[in-house]
Amino acid sequence: MNRMIGKFLVFFVLFSFVFSGCHYFSANNEIASAEKLFSDLRWKEGEKLVPYEYCSAEKFLEISNKEFNSNDFKTSERFAKRSISASKAGLAEIQKKK
What we know:
The chain has helices at 2-43, 46-49, 51-69, 73-97. It has 98 residues and is mainly alpha-helical. It is rod-shaped, with a radius of gyration of 19 Å.
């Protein structure tokens, strides 16, 4: 019985490490994508043309980085996705205006 409990605990610990690592890498990838899109938005003068989307993307990215640095990877990933969404909306609006 003790052996079975030990195996369960080892499995649980390994599963926890693997699962938490997934959020780290996915959050890191989302932040990289958000930074690239925000850079594109900045380069296309999003601050002047679409100020709401620009500010939203900027602040969501800022919060995402703060959450990532405080090791809250799941929340960081959510805010990075919101930044991506705001950047894409801003880029679409700029495309419509031209």
